[in-house]
Design brief:
Layout: E1 8-14, H1 25-38, E2 44-51, E3 54-60, E4 68-71, E5 74-77, H2 78-98, E6 110-113, H3 121-135, H4 150-153, H5 164-170, H6 178-182, H7 188-192
Antiparallel strand pairs: 1-3, 1-6, 2-3, 4-5
């Protein structure tokens, strides 16, 4: 994965063959602990959502993201190595838990830079990430999903994983209209860009 300073990235991956990657409440919490350890030190996390068979992160590349690490004969961003460790350590724990072997996630984690084209991609992606469980029919209200940053943004939880202040600045979000804006309809053509 390549990153450029001060850009927004939608990072996501799903289970191999669309299989589940989270099997119980503790799995979600363990994954978030790994995100805190391997990802948060190297970028600003703006939003996240963990779904039964995939995850989404919206991140902002900062100075720490630009640090390089030598892996074999190649230099790569330290954040890329962080994602490798996040998924590898999580998969190892799940394989041990479930007495399974092999790949848990698809081979390539996707990292889409949102600077292209429309300036509203970041805001659209931000809301799209939070709307995932609603769109999947897992909940009827966004605040009913425990495994996204939505509860942090509405003050229902005091999470510290996301840089909420930066998200409000970068995406021109309004605290007064945030809740209603979060339910705004995202057209299918907008989702295609994410």
């Amino acid at each position: 994965m390549q990153f450029h300073k001060n850009e927004l990235y939608h990072v996501y991956n799903r289970g191999n063959n669309r299989q589940p990657v989270f099997f119980n409440h503790d799995n979600y919490l363990y994954f978030l602990d790994k995100v805190r350890k391997y990802i948060q030190p190297y970028c600003d996390i703006l939003s996240y959502c963990l779904m039964p068979n995939h995850f989404h992160l919206l991140i902002h590349a900062n100075d720490a993201t630009m640090q390089m690490k030598r892996i074999g004969n190649n230099d790569q961003h330290i954040l890329s190595d962080g994602f490798k460790h996040l998924l590898g350590s999580y998969a190892k724990a799940i394989n041990k838990q479930n007495a399974t072997t092999g790949s848990l996630f698809q081979q390539n984690t996707h990292s889409k830079c949102l600077r292209e084209g429309n300036a509203s991609y970041g805001t659209t992606c931000f809301h799209y990430i939070h709307q995932n469980p609603l769109r999947a029919g897992l909940i009827t209200k966004l605040e009913d999903w425990d495994y996204s940053s939505f509860k942090d943004y509405i003050g229902a939880r005091n999470g510290t994983l996301c840089n909420k202040q930066l998200a409000f600045e970068l995406m021109d979000l309004s605290p007064k209209t945030f809740y209603l804006d979060s339910y705004s309809v995202i057209e299918s053509e907008d989702v295609g860009h994410l």
